[in-house]
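pipeline stage [seq->struct] | target=DUF1127 domain-containing protein | organism=Alloyangia mangrovi | residues=71
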Amino acid sequence: MATTDIHSLPTKTGDNSVSRMFARFKLARSRRAEYHRVVNELEAFSDRELADIGFHRANIRDIAWQAAYGR
């Protein structure tokens, strides 16, 4: 059973650290949803349709990652 030392938890009260945590969570969730949306959309295309727009099936996940995370 793991325990958490309460002295190691963040103690800042005026910086809205909890609200920032939830904002980061929402951002991560929306980016993940965008990634999956792009993957699903591109996987629905035929190989010919992907070639017409300059994509290859092997690159779908990379393209989706760039669309969602911009890296």
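stage status: PASS
auto-comment: The longest helix spans residues 17-43. The helical segments are 17-43, 47-52, 60-69.
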